[in-house]
Amino acid sequence: MFDILKTIFWAIPRGLSVTFKYLLSRSVTVRYPEQKLKLSPRYRGLHYLERNEDGSEKCVCCGLCAAVCPSGCIYMEPAENEFGERYARVYEINELRCIFCGYCQEACPKEAIFLGKEYEFSADRREKFIYRKEDLLVAYRKEGSKG
Ligand code: SF4
Ligand code: SF4
Q1: CATH topology classification for 47-136
Q2: 9 vs 129 pLDDT, higher one
Q3: What does the alpha-carbon distance between residue 147 and residue 142 come to, in Å, rounded to a whole number?
């Protein structure tokens, strides 16, 4: 008898108090995808490549980003344009192998590559995660990404 009373008047109210405490506290989840995620200023998402003001590509295919990349997920092939300037004929990043460490951004002497804020790039095939230069030169959301 004592056990039943203890359960009704002590254990159950105590358990419900925990439930109500979380019902009344501020939500830490969002209704994704209707609501977008509030990202940390330090968030590192999908890469993008910058252009110069005249529209030319900033990347000179020096290879430093690939050399510093701990995942070995950057591949490039250099070439020269008609003015003898070096550029990346091929530049690819395998986003499945990338660990978003940001070393490539730090190493780049031309400030050509950055990790942006884009996080919505799920895909249904592995091949779609290999981003070519043409994909990376597209202006993804960049707000605050150089911070
Ligand atoms: S963020 Fe890190 S792992 Fe990803 S491509 Fe850059 S250096 Fe490599
Ligand atoms: S992105 Fe920067 S570090 Fe990488 S090859 Fe181009 S210029 Fe060099």
Answers
A1: Alpha-Beta Plaits (3.30.70)
A2: 129
A3: 10
